[in-house]
Amino acid sequence: MRIMDRPGLYVHVPFCARKCPYCDFFSVSALELTPVYLKALAQEAARAAAFWRTPFDTLYIGGGSPSLLSRGDLKALKAALSPLELTPDAETTLEVNPEDADPDKMAFWADWGVTRLSLGAQTFDARFLAGSLGRTHLPADSFAAMEAAAAAGLSLSLDLIYGHAGQNPEDWAADLDKASASWAEHISAYALTPAPGTPLARALAERLVPRLLGEAASAELFALTAEALKIRGFERYEVSNFARGGAVCRHNLKYWRRTPYLGLGPSAHSFDGTRRWADEASVRRWAAALDRQDEPRSFVEEVTPEQARLEAIMLGLRLSEGFSASLLKPSQALEDFCAQGYLELEDELIKPTEKGLAVADFLARQLA
Ligand code: SF4
Q1: What is the DSSP string of 59-84?
Q2: Any idea what the CATH number is for the domain that residue 325 is in?
């Protein structure tokens, strides 16, 4: 078994101080439910321990806003997870909102076992933070959090979002410059996409807010990203993810490589290699099911071998490492994409080039 084949553990912390208008992750602001959540998390981890016996080599605590949890809550969270075994060198990521971070908390998190922070900086431009994103933190909060992470010796990943109304290439280049000049060794850069049903999507539909960047302008910023980050040593290893010094996110690679992972907490997803399921997206329903000793599932799906093959192709087209050529039958489309410089065939692997990564979803539709 390759070390990367060990399963990953995800814990969803479903609390946020307030809902950001563009966000469609499950979270609530009812922090008074924290004790209910922690009790149910312990029950879910104890149930899962009977089936998940291979030690996990990654733990990703996401949300929601895990950085809202108090020291006592985080200690209880660790106790809740104790039936599940982690390898001694497990990559342990905590998602952090800039406004929640300070040097004391940072030192506590490092002591707790966190090795890596995923900081939701989003942009260093106050206009866009307060505008399309509706965030409450300021660029200064992100800079302070980045400095505190460096002082605590924590590996740092930055989440950035582009495509804001009125954003031009110079604005985005300035964000990338600040991010790549920092302590961060990992950057995730996503286009702002209003998910259906979010307040931002509704406001855009009703023309209450300025339109976001169109497809062509957004594609220009996407193309600029890899170039700007390369100058400071970042390599793109997934369509939207860049690392320097080999600091890839081991946990997220499991999703893209279809390595099994266990998700705990309301709305968390899991995959055991042949089955995929999601937990109830409600703290109360999820906790009540666990209290009744029921599975707190909202759906379960058996993945057929053909589905598995298609998923491996679609996900593999998003990774610079590519995927096994044995998954695809020879075809004219495959030959054409290789000849046109979208794909390369190397050591029995099909690898998307930079040009191919820019249109990974299109290639997947044509080839899968
Ligand atoms: S974007 Fe982050 S902080 Fe905002 S509501 Fe979503 S999970 Fe919470």
Answers
A1: EEEEES-GGGS-HHHHHHHHHHHTTS
A2: 1.10.10
Are 60 and 156 found together in one domain? yes
Q: Are 253 and 4 in contact (CB under 8 A)?
A: yes
Partner residues linked to 186 by β-bridges:
157, 243
- Residue 107 near ligand 1, beta carbon < 6 Å: no
Q: Which of 243, 271, 328 is nearest to 8 (CA)?
A: 271
Range of the domain at 42: 3-256
Q: Which of 262, 259, 289 is nearest to 51 (CA)?
A: 262
From the CA of 135, give the closest atom in ligand 1: 4
Q: Is residue 352 part of a domain?
A: yes
In short, whether 225's Cβ falls inside 6 Å of ligand 1 is no
- 8 Å CB contact between 110 and 74: no
- For residue 300, the CA-to-ligand 1 centroid distance in Å is 26
Evaluate: CB of 68 within 6 angstroms of ligand 1.
no
In a domain, 267, yes or no: no
* CA–centroid distance, residue 14 to ligand 1 (Å): 10
Q: How many domains does the chain have?
A: 2
132 and 213 both lie in a single domain: yes
Q: Tell me, using a 6 A CB cutoff, whether residue 63 lines ligand 1.
A: yes
Q: Is ligand 1 within 6 A of the CB of residue 23?
A: yes
Ligand 1 centre and the CA of 26: distance in Å?
Answer: 9
Q: What is the pLDDT of residues 170-217, one digit of tens each?
A: 999 999 999 999 999 999 999 999 899 999 999 999 999 999 999 999
Q: Report yes or no on 135 lying in a domain.
A: yes
- pLDDT, tens digit (0-9, with 9 covering 90-100), for 153-173: 999 999 999 999 999 999 999
Distance 319 CA to ligand 1 centre (A): 26
Average pLDDT over residues 103-108: 94
